[in-house]
Fold:
Amino acid sequence: MQTPWTITQLQNQIGISLQSCHTAHERLMLKAICGKEIREAAIAFAQTRKLTPGEIAIASQYGYRA
Structure:
């Protein structure tokens, strides 16, 4: 599988990965780790270009502030 390179693809990957989780703790940790990756990606993208409204909405769910 390819490495996701957009915020939207990272968000979609969370849904796919959640299917592999067996416990609530695993789901919680997955969301925390992936949320951090999405925030970091949003910050990196914002330094080089303007984020789309969709990207801002997704990243805002995980604590990103423009």
The chain has three helices and no strands.
